Structures are given as C-alpha cells and as structure tokens.
C-alpha cells in the first residue's frame, strides 16, 4: 500500500470491564490477539479539569510505542439499526482520551457491529467451551475489528473508519 506508512496497527475493543487489544504485523496483513486490559471505570480529572491518563489508556499507549504503531483502530458499537447509544458515546470518549495520549499516531473509529457474536462463534468453532471465552473474548473481538480495518485499508489504499481528533 504505497499511500500508507508502514507500521503495525492496533485494534481495540472497548468494553465496560475489559478492553481487548489486537495487533498486526508492520505491513498490516494479519491481526493477532495481544492481551486483555482491565478497564478503568472512573476517569479522574487533572487540576485543569481535563481527563487524567488512566492505567488502561497508558497500557495501550505503551503498546503503541513498543510496536511502533502507525494507527489505532477502536471499535465503535452501534445498534444493528446503525443508531448510536450509550456504549457508542463511551467508545467515542475512550478513543478521544487515547488519541490525546498517543498523538501524533492517529486513532480511527470503525464499526464493530456483531464482532462479539462473531468472536464467540469463532471460539466455539475452534473447540473452546463457552466457559473459556470470558478471558479471551475481548481479544477475539479486537482481532475481528482490526482485521476488518486491514481489509478496508487493502481495498481502498486508505485508513478505515472515522478519524478521531485528539
């Protein structure tokens, strides 16, 4: 892809309790699971009133640095109808905080409808019992989010999704 800079990509599946993280190779060909990060539920503010950097955002920012990531894709949970709800607003807020922390590395929001359902189906097809899904389901969803974004990059020679301003 001549129009896109070389570098790993990260995929993020933001949940209420956990955040799934996936990564790609520097050429952006294949998404693989990285880890599950505990979600920080309350976001403190700085003396200036801005949101403080939480442990979850800091962990993802460290992964961006370690992998020399070129872009981070955050899943945007919409209703099947396409409408946005509370989970969408939460993901947008998280993506904005992450974008501030990792700038100038861009953050893009990509539609993640049905990724958790697809992740459960893939884990079942791989022979994993449903009771074993919880520790890895968020990573599996992040892999689906990232692989979709990589496929869009290859098809369009551009970044997938909606750019998040830091």
In short:
With 166 residues, the chain is an alpha/beta fold. It contains four helices and six strands.
Helix/strand layout:
Elements lengths: L8 E6 L3 E7 L6 E8 L16 H13 L3 E6 L9 H17 L4 E5 L3 H11 L11 H20 L5 E3 L2
Parallel strand pairs: 1-4, 4-5
Antiparallel strand pairs: 1-2, 2-3, 5-6
Q: Per CATH, which architecture?
A: 2-Layer Sandwich
Give the termini distance in whole angstroms. 26 Å
CATH C-level category: Alpha Beta
Mean pLDDT: 87
Largest sheet: 6 strands, mixed
What Rg is obtained from the alpha carbons, in whole angstroms? 15 Å
Strand content: 15-25%
Physical arrangement of strands within the biggest beta sheet: 3-2-1-4-5-6
Low-confidence segments, given as residue ranges, are none
- CATH superfamily (homologous) name: YqgF/RNase H-like domain
Given the helix and strand composition, which structural class is it? alpha/beta
Question: Could you please describe the fold and organization of this structure?
Answer:
By secondary structure, the chain is an alpha/beta fold. It has a single domain (9-164), classed as Nucleotidyltransferase, domain 5 (2-Layer Sandwich), CATH 3.30.420.140. Helices cover 37% and strands 21% of the residues. The protein is built from four helices and six strands, in the order βββαβαβααβ. The protein has helices at residues 55-67, 86-102, 115-125, 137-156, and strands spanning 9-14, 18-24, 31-38, 71-76, 107-111, 162-164. A six-stranded mixed beta sheet has the order 3-2-1-4-5-6, sandwiched between helices. Helix 2 links the parallel strand 4 (71-76) and strand 5 (107-111). Helix 1 (55-67) packs across helix 2 (86-102) and helix 3 (115-125) crosses helix 4 (137-156). The longest helix is centred in the C-terminal third of the chain and has 20 residues, at 137-156. The two termini are 26 Å apart. The model has no long low-confidence stretch (mean pLDDT 87).
């Amino acid at each position: 892809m001549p129009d896109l800079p070389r570098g790993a990509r990260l995929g993020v599946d933001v949940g209420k309790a956990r955040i799934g993280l996936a990564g790609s190779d520097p050429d952006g060909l294949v998404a693989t699971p990285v880890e599950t990060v505990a979600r920080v539920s309350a976001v403190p503010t700085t003396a200036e009133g801005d949101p403080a950097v939480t442990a979850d955002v800091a962990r993802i920012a460290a992964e961006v640095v370690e992998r020399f990531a070129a872009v981070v894709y955050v899943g945007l949970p919409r209703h099947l109808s396409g409408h946005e709800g509370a989970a969408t607003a939460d993901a947008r807020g998280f993506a904005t905080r992450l974008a501030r922390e990792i700038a100038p590395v861009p953050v893009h929001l990509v539609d993640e409808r049905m990724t958790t359902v697809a992740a459960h189906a893939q884990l079942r097809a791989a022979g994993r019992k449903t009771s074993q899904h919880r520790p890895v389901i968020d990573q599996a969803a992040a892999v689906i989010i990232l692989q979709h974004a990589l496929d869009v990059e290859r098809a369009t020679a551009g970044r997938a999704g909606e750019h998040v301003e830091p």
